[in-house]
Amino acid sequence: MITPSKSVKPEGSMSVMDAIYHRRAVRHYAPQTVDSGIIRALLDAAVHAPTALHEEPWAFAVIQDRNLLDRLSNGVIEAARREAQGPQSAHEKHLARLLSQPDSHVFHDAGTLIVIYAKFPGPFVVADCWLAAENLMLAACASGLGTCVIGSSVPTLNTPSWKAELKIPAAMTAVAPIIVGIPADETPPVSRKPPEILTWE
Ligand SMILES: Cc1cc2nc3c(=O)[nH]c(=O)nc-3n(C[C@H](O)[C@H](O)[C@H](O)COP(=O)(O)O)c2cc1C
What we know:
The chain is of the alpha+beta class. The protein is built from 7 helices and 4 strands, in the order ααβααβαβααβ.
């Protein structure tokens, strides 16, 4: 079991507020692979997220094999193209358009993909996995790394063939695929609308 005292504090940590405001969806990466010690520190940060009923319903896959990442990316693109043949929602059309560009790589050529899986179903299990995802992304940002959620890969990761290929038990569900790498350049911030406060009584 991992206790807070054993957890690894990433080097060059910034304040939580700095990490929140500096995190970006990074889509350009340097070719170097992130080393395993840093990946373990990020996973440790992830499992310190709040968890309903203390279920800790998450499990992780770390994929750094370039060939595997390329094949998975191709699988996602092929699935999107197949979907494009049928009736589509606006979201699916947008995705198919993005993925049909030549040389597109859904993982933006990042050297590491971390997938957070839900080990079992439950009312708050998906929420727990996303909380772990945000912890991981903020810890990565504090360590000078870039991340991006790759939601488009979820359906492909949940196919029986990809679960078998990655040795994921059939009962588990991919929830949050996150690429991690060394940013190749600065990513400008994307603006946010101000918080919409519905009531404050
Ligand atoms: C659930 C989810 C799914 C996402 N899927 C993708 C994706 O498939 N590909 C991608 O490049 N970015 C993806 N993103 C990143 C968003 O586009 C990005 O977070 C958003 O534009 C805001 O930019 P920021 O993260 O830099 O603030 C996803 C983000 C979330 C939260």
